[in-house]
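Forwarding the complex inputs:
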Amino acid sequence: MSEVLLVDSVLLLLVTVCAVAIIEVRSLYAVAMLTSVYSLLMALVWTNMHSMDVAFTEAAVGGGISTILLIGTLVHTRRDEKPAKKRLHVPALLVTILTGAALIYGTFDMPRFGDPNATIHHYRVPEMMAQNVGFVSQRAGKQTPPEGFVPPPRMVPTIPKADPHHGEHAEAEHHEEGGHHKHPADDFNGHVPNSVTSLLAAYRGYDTMFETTVIFTAGISLILLLRRRRDDEPQAGETLRGQVILRVMTKMFIPFILVFGFYVITHGEIGPGGGFQGGVILATAFILYALIYGRNALFRIIQPKVLDVLAAVGVLLYAGVGVACLLLGGKFLDYSALNTASPGDGEALGMTLVEYGVGITVCTVMIIIFNQLAEQAEAKAS
Amino acid sequence: MYIAAIFALLVGAFFILARALKGPTAYDRILAMNAMGTKTVILVALLGFASDRPDFLDLAIVYALVSFITTIAILKYIEKGRLD
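Prediction (whole assembly, two chains):
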């Protein structure tokens, strides 16, 4: 039994205990905190599986913002769950057991965890990894194609040289051959090092665009449902100005959180992370400011009206990049049209812009949700 | 070496989880949650070094920067009964 498997087993045991506790505990307060612990543990599971982007999302969303929003919801509801009337419902239990058994039976057909012969490691992925930019941290050893894979002649894996023009020439050469004007015949559309970002922003660009729209819609619905008072009215709020340590530490921490958020968004196509994670990290900085100095102080920096507009600007930026690609002669969201001389640069540029679009929308919608949850409590209190 | 440290931390995680489950007061749970956050930062860093992927440190930094804000939000809610 390898260490990875052993660590995984221990973590899954912890996760299971935590999940059962979340269902059983009646105090919603404790549930909010246990949910936070649960997501910390899940992030460890993802880290152990080396799925960094998922772990990043879990860290930024689960470890930070979702617990704050759960507490915000708790302000509106009771602190305790109503006791369940009937403890055991036999037909429901039977259906659950049967579904679980069917799901487990289904996994028998799946390849074993970490099986190098699984389809997913052979279909398309070797081509993608053999591209001469598809290496994390410029180290070939981490992403070499599996044994027995013979790369097509034009995709021989080489580490990019220090000469900045080398990659561009190689790109230009193999884009000229074949009938296709931008990509080689079976290109993965992935000229950026982080294959996950490449998948999300380019290969499944439409999907991510509509995900961003869903987040935007969530923000709009919360405004429609919960916004009661006019933006310009002064709003009373509790501040924690008396807490010297918190006040000083907040002022020291916020610049670092903001810089790190921008780093995660900008660096999304190279390292782990991207628009969603970076946007949430940015929003956390604003929420921290509102927690310590009160929401009035936050509104002096950024007005609710500006937030509402920015939420829409992010989606527009995403779709705008797509339209720009159309106007430049490519397909919708075909970023390589942005820079025909070196399509790889065009894709990196397009993905960075798109990530910023996602980041702006996610960040502002998270602040809006926090605002609306806190505001309603205030209206109730007065 | 890294593996031994990882398992030592995982054993500690059981005790933390026990405290988070048992309570009895909200402050016990807050402390457990906070300790689990700190433990996660170190565990992520250790998992990164154990598997020779130091870029995992990015993730540890996110936790270090973000997880304490949750604690502040909960404490503010306990003290003031509101979040704004």
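Chain B touches chain A through 48 residues (CB under 8 Å).
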